[in-house]
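Why do we care about 3D structure at all? Because function follows from shape, and shape follows, mostly, from sequence. That is the central idea of this module. The next example makes it concrete: a single protein chain, its amino acid sequence, and then its structure expressed as tokens.
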Amino acid sequence: MILDDAVVKRSQFPLKGTNAMFTIVTDTSANLPSPMTKDADLYVIPFTYTIDGKTYTSEDTEAFDGVAFYEKIRAGMKVNTSLINVQTYLDHFEPLAQAGQDILFIAMSSGISGSYNCSVTAAEELKEKYPDKKCRQVGNKIIIKDMKKQVN
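And the structure:
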């Protein structure tokens, strides 16, 4: 289990008009500063990347040195990025469902990464095991379009 009980309890948000609780989950593609995610009680699932055979986990967006990363690419080092797989999503989502929470996952657009589709598959598997829990995904492209409509 990736999440301990104290973290799960702290992240509960009331679902308006009900007694249900939900948790907001995103991934490191959101590029949110770690203090912001901690203050807002958001779960962030990290992406991984590999440089010359060594795998790194992008857990702290503030600690990630983008300049050095791209310098390594320009220097010809072999760099691979990875999508978040179904099992990793399940490892993060299941403790929340076990704690009685619904999940809202805000993901990178499906047009950019296969991770979104993996989150959908994980949600479908979770629904079989926890039929009374909701796990909804929304791509950040949809959120941006909706925000644009509200501004215009």
